[in-house]
Write a structure and sequence with these properties.
This protein has 375 residues and is an alpha/beta fold. The chain has helices at residues 19-28, 33-45, 59-68, 140-154, 182-193, 213-222, 236-242, 251-259, 284-293, 319-331, 357-374; strands spanning 12-13, 69-70, 75-81, 87-92, 98-105, 110-113, 117-118, 136-137, 169-172, 205-209, 226-230, 270-276, 299-305.
Length: 375
């Protein structure tokens, strides 16, 4: 008689489920609704990863949870620490894909740069991520999991109640375009903002877009987070080259959407990101045009020294040129700080993120081929 092959059922990861979805899973176990609320507290306020340690839950309930579910973060493939204390995690997701997250520390706070996609579809020519093809959207659990893993590493569970924490802000500026994965990003950020869990204020969350105009209004209406726009040029001719999405949604259309962004005010200004590229977009005339373009928008400008990467087709503007540009923009009534590059030595700075998914797959393939030849 042939042996019957059996497989162990895969346990479902609860990280990334909305409150409603978590409630449905718990109800399917025959448990009361308040159990889901208790579990939410353990997962997102305390950061617990072991059901057995959730001592306020009945033992029988904990046993059911252990049988059916897990609380997994993305796997860490590599962890690097920069000389300026910036940390970068190369994370392995379901299916073996690789993404990157970066923690940028300050004296009494810090921001986590979170990825929303594996790769990117936008092909911005100054951005290293843009040279990597889009593989897929990240699921909500893979997005919020980046935050939870960083909080694990920083030892910031349970959620601090005094506001003092090194992971104080989120910037959706990692790999990918968040507005091309809006539903999953929204689910993840609503979990992060939930007051009975991680409880991060929406005022501490910034979503960066390259200009997906049709989704900007929804972002403001449904998430109400701060908006950052990758502008980088003052004419369609130059922006078409730097940000090819501009051919679909040109500057005039993009700025109209910014003027209408819900909640934008002098107290909650839209950030316009502007990478400084030598002899491309850094002239005095460009600075004056930038001031004129942003009239009527509650705006500030982040001037970003170009962060080089292997094979990059651009050079960074000189320090003198950047500060001359900044003076013109400041004199025009707009705040224009020059961003201090962080994590350049580990390729964690703005525009440098690119996982080595492709390289790793080639390496693994070669190993497999060698093993096959030896056999």
């Amino acid at each position: 008689m042939d042996a019957v092959e059996t497989t162990t059922p895969t346990r479902k990861n609860l990280i990334g489920l909305s409150r409603a979805a978590l409630g449905e899973e718990i109800a399917a176990l025959g448990e009361k609704p308040f159990r889901a609320k208790q579990l939410w507290h353990w997962i997102y306020h305390r950061g617990e990863t072991d059901f057995a340690a959730m001592t306020t839950l009945a033992k029988s309930f904990r046993e059911k949870l252990t049988e059916h579910f897990v609380l997994d973060r993305p796997d860490v493939a590599r962890h690097q620490v920069s000389e300026d204390r910036t940390q970068k995690w190369l994370l392995r997701t379901e299916g073996g894909h690789l993404i990157e997250s970066v923690h940028i520390p300050e004296e009494d706070r810090g921001a986590l740069c979170i990825s929303s996609q594996v790769g990117c579809t936008l092909t911005c020519t100054f951005c290293h991520t843009g040279t990597q093809r889009l593989v897929r959207n990240l699921e909500p659990g893979e997005i919020v999991g980046q935050f939870m893993l960083a909080r694990d590493a920083l030892g910031e569970w349970p959620t601090p109640t005094d506001g003092g924490r090194m992971l104080s802000n989120i910037v959706m500026m990692g790999m990918g375009e968040p507005l091309y994965n809006f539903e999953n990003v929204k689910t993840a950020l609503k979990i992060v903002m939930d007051e009975e869990g991680i409880a991060l204020s929406r005022r501490r969350i910034t979503l960066s877009t390259s200009g997906v105009v049709p989704m900007i209004q929804r972002c403001g209406d449904e998430l109400k987070v701060d908006l950052a726009v990758s502008l980088h040029a003052v004419t369609d001719e130059i922006r078409n080259r730097l940000v090819p999405l501009n051919k679909k949604h040109p500057i005039e259309e993009l700025l109209a959407a910014c003027r209408a962004y819900p909640g934008a005010s002098n107290a909650r200004r839209i950030t316009f990101e502007y990478v400084m590229l030598k002899d491309v977009n850094d002239s005095d005339a460009d600075a004056r045009a930038l001031v004129a373009l942003l009239q009527g928008i509650p705006a500030k400008v982040n001037l970003i020294p170009f962060n080089a990467w292997p094979g990059a087709p651009y050079e960074c503007s000189s320090n003198n040129r950047i500060h001359a540009f900044a003076r013109i923009v400041n004199d025009g009534g707009l705040s224009a700080p020059v961003r201090r590059p962080r994590g350049r030595d580990i390729f964690a700075a703005c525009g440098q993120l690119k996982s080595d998914t492709v390289k790793k797959r080639k390496s693994e393939l070669l190993k497999e081929q060698a093993a096959g030849a030896a056999a």
